Amino acid sequence: MSDRPWLVVGLGNPGPQYAGNRHNVGQMVLDELARRTGVTFGSRVGGLLSRRPQAVVAEARLGTLAGGAPGPRVVLAKPTTYMNVSGGPVVALARYFDVPPEQVVMVHDELDIPFAEVRLKIGGGEGGHNGLRDTTKALGTKDYVRVRVGVGRPPGRTDAADFVLRDFAKAELKDLPWLVDAAADAVEAVVVDGLEKAQLRFHTKS
């Protein structure tokens, strides 16, 4: 396994008015990963305070390797830009920490997956997701890992853009902590065990 860190990015929009939106579930997952590892997000990168930070970051080790050794190094990042310009912060951090695209993990909401399900893949299309589209453009490749957090399709004739910019429904809130926890587990599985083993675990119905 490379000794380079993994870059784990939680997509979302900045500001408290968006914090509970379906579109911000990726950042909810990053908050859970920070809680698990006991780190705090800040704008310090490599010991230097960025004058114009485009993300808040935290460095940690995630999971546990065989024999009980600490897991791989990770840089947890939440862009402070709007979703449709996420690529700039992602590519800047990837370059700064010397992270190859295959060790970039994007955690994001996914309309094409039922609510409370998690799916994993590398490469492929962006499915109309503006954050992924901008990331692909900035990185110059589609070959980065996606942790796809299912939020389901909008009901009736509800516009998809409006749907993801709404908070989770009351009926969903009771399962939301479980979903965030499962997505955090999926990120950990990817960086510790590799994508194929993680897919086998999360794509297999019990």
Give a structural overview.
The chain is an alpha/beta fold and 206 residues long. The chain has one domain (6-203): Peptidyl-tRNA hydrolase (Rossmann fold), CATH 3.40.50.1470. A hairpin with a 2-residue loop joins strand 2 and strand 3. The model has no long low-confidence stretch (mean pLDDT 92). It has seven helices and eight strands; from the N terminus they run E-H-E-E-E-E-H-E-E-H-E-H-H-H-H. The strands form two sheets. It has a six-stranded mixed beta sheet, sandwiched between helices. A two-stranded antiparallel ribbon has the order 2-3. It is globular, with a radius of gyration of 16 Å. The chain starts with 5 loop residues before the first strand and ends with a helix. Helix 1 (25-37) crosses helix 6, helix 2 crosses helix 3 (130-139) and helix 6 packs antiparallel against helix 7.
Note the topology.
Elements lengths: L5 E5 L14 H13 L6 E2 L2 E2 L5 E7 L11 E7 L7 H10 L7 E7 L7 E5 L7 H10 L5 E6 L9 H5 L5 H4 L2 H18 L1 H9 L3
Parallel strand pairs: 1-5, 1-6, 6-8
Antiparallel strand pairs: 2-3, 4-5, 7-8
Helix pairs in contact: 1-6, 2-3, 6-7
Family: Belongs to the PTH family.
Catalytic activity: an N-acyl-L-alpha-aminoacyl-tRNA + H2O = an N-acyl-L-amino acid + a tRNA + H(+)
GO cellular component, one term: cytoplasm
The proportion of residues in beta strands is 15-25%
What is the quaternary state of this protein? single chain
Number-wise, the strands total: 8
The CATH architecture would be 3-Layer(aba) Sandwich
CA-based shape: globular
Give the radius of gyration: 16 Å
Give, in spatial order, the strands making up the sheet with the most strands: 4-5-1-6-8-7
Which stretches are poorly predicted, pLDDT < 50 over at least 5 residues? none
First and last CA, distance: 29 Å
Number of H- or I-type helical stretches: 7
Pfam family, one: Pept_tRNA_hydro
Active site: 23 (proton acceptor)
Function: Hydrolyzes ribosome-free peptidyl-tRNAs (with 1 or more amino acids incorporated), which drop off the ribosome during protein synthesis, or as a result of ribosome stalling.
Subcellular location: Cytoplasm
